[in-house]
Amino acid sequence: MPDIQVKICGLSTPEQMRWAVEAGAGYVGLVFFAKSPRNVSLATARALAVEVPPGVAKVALVVDADDATLDAILTEVPVDMLQLHGAESPERVAEIRTRSGLPVMKAVGISGPEDIARLDVYSAVADQILVDAKPPKGAEVPGGMGVPFDWTLLTGYHFSRPWMLAGGLTPRNVALAARLTGARQVDVSSGVESAPGVKDEALIRAFMAAVA
């Protein structure tokens, strides 16, 4: 299988960031969402981001963030992209993209055929689409649940933007997921952890080996 770009999300310590970069991740994700076990403070995020070498995209994940929250992140932390992982409307996505001056990746949750149309809607306003498993109703967090969706739902769908596959990916299933969906980019968080929020160096390396 040709090389696939990998985003490792939810990094929270210098060691985790180093493992991701040394393993060859093309994107590294910092989570700014208090309910997540991967949440980082602005100070921690800044310390991590400044050590990331050129060529690796630093992504700030936010959930329905207001302008003040976004301004604080962008003032303090040198990031390259915003990942919107909440219920942001297409209008809000476009507004954030214009206001921040940064590329925006919008997460779209998928659980059935009825969700596919939302990919078109958000492709019109975002720079990239992250196709994730839709969280169950009442879930405390919108992602990082470690549950895949039915990948065959993407069969025949033509993406008009760069896109990334997420949702329950692990070293064991990522090669199959990429083959079935045609994904050229994948996102992993819980799939390379030994416990919620605790990244595992061996799992990171195994994941990268699986898509090489």
Provide structural commentary.
The strands form 2 sheets. An 8-stranded parallel beta sheet has the order 7-6-5-4-3-2-1-8. The chain has 212 residues and is α/β, with parallel strands linked by helices. Strand 1, helix 1 (14-23) and strand 2 form a beta-alpha-beta unit. The chain has 7 helices and 10 strands. The mean pLDDT is 93. The longest helix is centred in the middle third of the chain and has 11 residues, at 90-100. Helix 1 (14-23) runs parallel beside helix 7 (201-211). It has a single domain (5-211), classed as TIM Barrel (Alpha-Beta Barrel), CATH 3.20.20. It has helices spanning 14-23, 42-49, 67-76, 90-100, 117-123, 174-181, 201-211; strands spanning 5-8, 27-32, 57-62, 81-84, 104-110, 128-133, 163-165, 185-188, 193-195, 198-199. It is 31% helix and 21% strand.
What's the short version?
This protein has helices at residues 14-23, 42-49, 67-76, 90-100, 117-123, 174-181, 201-211; strands at 5-8, 27-32, 57-62, 81-84, 104-110, 128-133, 163-165, 185-188, 193-195, 198-199.
How much helix is in the residues? Answer: 25-40%
Quantity of strands, as a count = 10
CATH-level-4 superfamily name = Aldolase class I
Q: How does the major sheet shape up?
A: 8 strands, parallel
Based on CA atoms alone, the radius of gyration comes out at: 16 Å
Structural class: alpha/beta
Range of strand content: 15-25%
State the CATH architecture.
Alpha-Beta Barrel
Oligomeric status: single chain
Name of the CATH class = Alpha Beta
Mean pLDDT: 93
Terminal CA distance: 7 Å
Number of domains: 1
Q: How do the helices and strands follow one another from N- to C-terminus?
A: EHEHEHEHEHEEHEEEH
Q: Looking at CATH, which topology would you report?
A: TIM Barrel
